[in-house]
Structure formats: structure tokens, C-alpha cells
Amino acid sequence: SAVHGAAEARAIDGNLESSDGVWRESNAFFTPLNILFLLVNIYTIYVLLRPTPPAVLPKEPPATVFRVFNPRTLLPFTGENDTPIYLAVRGRVFDVSHGRNFYGPGGPYSNFAGRDASRGLALGSFDEDMLTEDLDGPLDPLEGLGPDEIEALQGWEENFDSKYLVVGRLTAVGDEEK
């Protein structure tokens, strides 16, 4: 036919016959839906065949050795410079590092960190004057506490027992070997 142009083509069954008589595939394969399907298949194959990373075991905390403290050797354990936080209650030293927001620097009970907290906990007072001033003297015998205060102290001790690890015992300076 005389009206055939160079770019004219006729479609038969999804194929195109160009004006030069050569049959060519139409671009029906490259539809957005087919491209999406191809990408989903490639991703699925990647996910199935990619190497799995080795399992990472949780890091064990360093072992804590039970030790004997005196008021001076307990004093550095205040949570400053990422040190553990220890406090003593009735001669037992607890690692309260997990309660850093309470016992660490700036916490409401931070003055008990690295110290014997027994009297302050028994009296419900978190003031500095509840702490033993003479670190080289005898431990506080907790004299003068009434039955209600002793009961309050026992409640605190039970609380510490249920939440924190006992890491040592507190003795007076010079009594560490007993």
C-alpha cells in the first residue's frame, strides 16, 4: 500500500510487524506490574539465599568475687567514672549498679553509695548525717533504733535481697581477717 510510512506497524497477537517486514516483540513485557513482580522475585531469592550472620551470644558480666570490705575500701564504689555501685545494709554489701538511677551520682539515694546505709534506711532519712563519719572507727551498732525502725530496715534488706547481688560483707577497719 502506498500510505505505508517508515514507522508504520500493524499489531497481530501482541507482536508487531514493522514496515520493513521484520517481526518484533512488543514492549508488553516491560509493564509496571511485570517489573514489580520481577523485583519482588529478585528480593525473595536474595533473602532466601543470603548468608545468615553468626549468632551473637549475650555478653556475660564480669564475675564478681565475694570479698570483705571496710568503710574505707567500700567508699570508692559510688558509680563515679563507671565504677560499680555498692552499699552496705547490716554488714552485707550489695551491688546496686542496676539501680544506678537511684543510687548512682545525682540519684535520690546517692549519698548511700559506697557507704553503710543501715541507719539512714531504718530511719527513713537520706541525709548525710545518717552516715558514719569515722571511717576508721567501729561500725554503727544501730543502737537506739525502735521496733518500727528495725522492721523498716528489715524491709529494705529484703528488698535488696530480692533485687541485688550480695558481693561482700562489711567489717570495721582491722577486722577484715575475722
TrEMBL record:
Molecular function as annotated in GO: heme binding; metal ion binding
Membrane spanning residue stretches: 29-49
Single GO cellular component term: endoplasmic reticulum
Domain Cytochrome b5 heme-binding stretches: 69-171
UniProt keyword terms in alphabetical order: Endoplasmic reticulum, Heme, Iron, Membrane, Metal-binding, Receptor, Transmembrane, Transmembrane helix
Keyword Membrane among record annotations: yes
Main location: endoplasmic reticulum
InterPro entries linked to this entry: Cyt_B5-like_heme/steroid-bd (IPR001199), Cyt_B5-like_heme/steroid_sf (IPR036400), MAPR/NEUFC/NENF-like (IPR050577)
PANTHER family for the chain: MEMBRANE-ASSOCIATED PROGESTERONE RECEPTOR COMPONENT-RELATED (PTHR10281), NEUDESIN (PTHR10281:SF72)
Similarity comment: Belongs to the cytochrome b5 family. MAPR subfamily.
Identification of the protein by name: Membrane-associated progesterone receptor component 1
Lineage: Eukaryota, Fungi, Dikarya, Ascomycota, Pezizomycotina
